[in-house]
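Example complex used in Figure S2.
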Amino acid sequence: MTMPSHPAPRRGVERRGLRDHVYELILELLLSGEVEPGARLAIDTIARQLDVSPTPVREALVHLERTGLVTREALKGYRVAPPLGSEELAELFEARLVLETAAARLATPAGPDLVAQLGEAQQRHREAGERVVEALDAGRVDLALTTEYFAADTDFHAVVFRACGNRYLVGMSESLGAQLHRMRQSALRGVTDVHEAVAEHAAVADAFRGLGELTPEQAMERHIVGVRTRSLAQAGRG
Amino acid sequence: MTMPSHPAPRRGVERRGLRDHVYELILELLLSGEVEPGARLAIDTIARQLDVSPTPVREALVHLERTGLVTREALKGYRVAPPLGSEELAELFEARLVLETAAARLATPAGPDLVAQLGEAQQRHREAGERVVEALDAGRVDLALTTEYFAADTDFHAVVFRACGNRYLVGMSESLGAQLHRMRQSALRGVTDVHEAVAEHAAVADAFRGLGELTPEQAMERHIVGVRTRSLAQAGRG
DNA sequence: ACTGCGGCGATCCTATAGGAAAGTGGATCG
DNA sequence: CGATCCACTTTCCTATAGGATCGCCGCAGT
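Predicted assembly (476 residues):
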């Protein structure tokens, strides 16, 4: 039953840092929402599916364990993390409020680069939002468009974080970003606050340009609070 | 040269969750400062030293990689993370200021439990500080006392974080804690601000009790700013 | 009929072996 | 004498095999 004949010509992945590649694949699998929370993540199974040995899979899972996307029970294996409860949701928004306002405050005053990048990110977010609304008016919920919209939103906030010049805050933001993405999976049936979100992003961008009466921190605070309010309201209706 | 006769009676560790045990051992090794930054962390060398196979060592290193305590270069191996530069130091204090003030704000108003725990933590910190000063006056720098003092300080802040009721902020604090510990290793030659730190902790505790004119957030802000100022001044003198 | 228990399958966990890439030293040629 | 090339060593990286553990199903006993 030993078949050592195969020299394993690496057909699944092309010989470029296996562990990181496996990590990205599993991460993509998790973020795509194709696996339900609580589902088992068998090491050997994944290894066979990706045509690699269990070792890099194991390392990738260890990596993912620290992100909170998967949970590990000793001698029982890995599982997809359970969905966020109401308490975790509230804490997530609270933490995000702290980080985002701090990043906006530290990125003030904005230089020309930040203004430019913010404008581009805002425009992409607005256009993606228009396409989502357009599809929504046509009666269909396009998953690809929704994903693109969320990505544009994430990019907008990432611009602010990069501009704040603090690598630790950036890291924390990315750490929360995974949880945020997980939350969005739960309420992916449709985006209902495109108009408000786009308007609030515009307010943030304007504040960074020196327009309006609000500081960037205040504008960002209103945005995050608005997102929280609308999300909780939608969750309550669901 | 192969000695497979031994059934490997697990002499180094006693058969209880190898990977986590290895992780704690390496973490302790790193935090103890016995290894210099930039030093190589050879996988099989560590495996032989701990009398385990390379696999759990590898997993522990992956775990540590996400904490920022070790760095990995593809196909080159792991190394102890280089010491924090001045920019990283400034960003670390900035991030800590954000987190600590937010935690203090969220923990306000304080319940009886928080007041009690804070009082105990403050007392331990003060006593540890007194012992450090006492030893310092005697002309010796006791490493154990200094470590205990730092641990008491960390505990004091951990009380506030646990009381803020936000698991994500707690996680971020712990993440920064590793970097903070690393920074303290660099300036471990002596603690010079015991008096100020104890006084500021007392001010924070008093603010949580409703005494004084400052809010807990303001008191915590003054404390962190004070720590930053004194640390940078000491680094400048060094 | 219900509960305790022992075998069985699946999976995780650890160990060992072999192939590949990077660093190092010496030898050779200009 | 210096630079370059080559071979060697070390180490990482991946693959495979074996031991240990957990959950489950059937069975006996009360």
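Residues 1-15 of chain B have pLDDT under 50 and may be disordered. Chain B touches chain A at residues 17, 55, 58-59, 62-63, 65-67, 74, 88, 91-92, 94-95, 98-99, 102, 106, 165-169, 171-172, 175-176, 179 (CB under 8 Å).
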